[in-house]
Amino acid sequence: MNKFNREVSVEILVGLFMFIVLIALGIFTIVLSRNKLFNESYQYDFVFTEVSGLREGDAVYLRGMNVGRVKQTQLENRRVHVYVTLDLELSLRHGYRIDVVDASMLGGKYLKVYEGPEDAQELGDNVTILGSKPVDMIEEMAAAVNGLQEMIDAVAAGEGTLGKLLRDDAMYNNMVEISDDIKTLVTKLEQGEGTIGKLLNDDTVYDDAAAVMANLRSVSDRIASGEGTLGKLLTEDASVYDNVDATMVAVREITERINAGEGTIGKLVSDAKLYEEATLLVEDIRAAVDDLREASPITSFGSVMFGAF
Amino acid sequence: MSYPVRSAERVGGQVLQLFHNTGHAMFMLLEATWFIQFSFGKRSRHETVTQLYITGIKSLAVISVVAMFTGMILALQTGLELRRWGQEEFIGSAVAVTMIREMGPFMTGLIIAASVGSAIAAQLGTMTVSEEIAALEVMSINPNRFLVMPRLVALTLMMPILAVYTNILGILGGAIVGTTQLGVSLTSYMNNATEFATNKDLYVGLFKAFIFGIIITTVSCHQGFMTSEGAVGVGKATRRSVIISFLVILVVGYMITRMFYL
After folding, report:
1. Min Cα–Cα distance to chain B from A94, Å
2. Residues A89 and A111 in one domain
3. pLDDT tens for residues A11-42?
4. Count of domains forming chain A
5. Which of residues 27-86 of A touch B (CB under 8 A)?
6. A9 falls within a domain
7. How far is Cα of residue A224 from the mean position of the Cα atoms in its chain?
8. Which domain holds residue A154?
9. CA angle B134, B136, B137 (to 5 degrees)
10. Predicted confidence (pLDDT) per residue in A131-183, tens digit
């Protein structure tokens, strides 16, 4: 290879290397700028009273998905304008929320966008989108710790039930008394005093119960073996049942005949005329008795008078 | 003459020598910078391209190995610590940010200072002790234009390029360790790698590499021109050029980082 060709090949090699690395640098730049060159992007301006350290480059999340980045934060007229670039268009409705959220306990922030209820009315054009005041996690934790400290102080000072449990001897004394009472009660039970004590210590009730149970068992054995009326009812053939059944059939026939007005009793039950006649008869008998009662003194007098003769 | 006086005289002499050397190096750099306009001219083009080739292409092999293993070590060390907290997914971010901001330009600077810088110091030192530099001056050829300027152009152009190359290989090395040793998916690694690094990090890193290129050229050429005492002096000049380049790269690297990030 002559000198000229060698120089040319060196130049080509150097140029190629630089060209390749410069292309890589360009790709690097595009990737790190996080701009999607071929996708449409949407710019929004959120207005906050405070952003708690939200910075350029912080992520924007919609429904848990990263949809863009904070492009710039700017303090204007006592408000913080947060300019964001999103990959998709927001559909903000009344009730929307834009929150600055802690990315982790170690720090970092991101914007969380809630577009509002599905059935709410959409915001009009040229509406200022207001962000919510961020919750400072450190402040919240400090408040929680302060509350806890106050609680501990109150307990230490003997305030409240927990404090009294720790500080007041009354409950301890009561518990000692209860313990003594329980001890006395147990002693009495052990000595067989009272009903429960007797139940625990005296076998009489048990024996009586055992005897009752033995008797019941004897009765049930006798019934099972067909002794006595009950036993026979349970164990013998169906003659008793048949007799009762035949009797019931006969009673039913009689009842049906009475209902049909057959026979004397049937007529008595179903014929109103007989009732009326009977009523008239009773009235006649009552009238005859009344007449007889009125005529009785005269009859007696006549009998006496004429009996003498 | 008493000992303290002799000591003070020696220290004073060294301080004066330091000022003299610094001043000489600065004038050399300014003059070479002025001659950059002729870098791709008819008479300088060949030397400039040759230096670009030596700095860029000839260093690729060693830079590739160093960059790859730098990324792998970074990934392994940070990954093992992050695994204790179940956060090994973030090694991509750690490796990318560290490489782009600091380790890419820094490692490139060290490698070029040790390989190309030492070669420049040795070459110019040999030319100095063999009075070739004096011969050039006798022929009215400015050594700064003929020798320093092409090297300055080559290193200032190639250092950022090599830093980008180091960054890419370092991130790839981290990806290899992340996916094979730490169970991090390649997608997750790459997503995290591009999540936290910014263009500011990239270009501040490239600016560092550019400054490191100027430092290596200035220190190496100056040490070469200051060589004396024959072959032994060449060895000393080479050693000094590497040590001084390393120290200045470290200090200037810190100052640039502080300037842009604090």
Report:
1. 33
2. yes
3. 788 878 888 888 888 888 888 776 666 778 88
4. 3
5. 28-29, 31-34, 57
6. yes
7. 51
8. 138-168
9. 65
10. 988 877 778 888 999 999 998 888 888 888 777 777 777 778 888 899 999 99
